[in-house]
Amino acid sequence: MNKGEERRSKLLDILRQAGADPVPGFKLAEELQTSRQAIVHDIALLRSAGEPIVATSRGYMLATALAPGMQKIEVVVRHRPEDTPKELYSLVDVGVRIVDVAVLHPIYGELRGRLELDSRADVEEFLEKVSSCKAHLLSELTDGLHMHTLAARDRKYLDEALRVLEKLGFLIKEDSQDETELETLAEARSR
Question: Ranges for the Helix-turn-helix type domain (predicted)?
Answer without folding.
Answer: 7-60
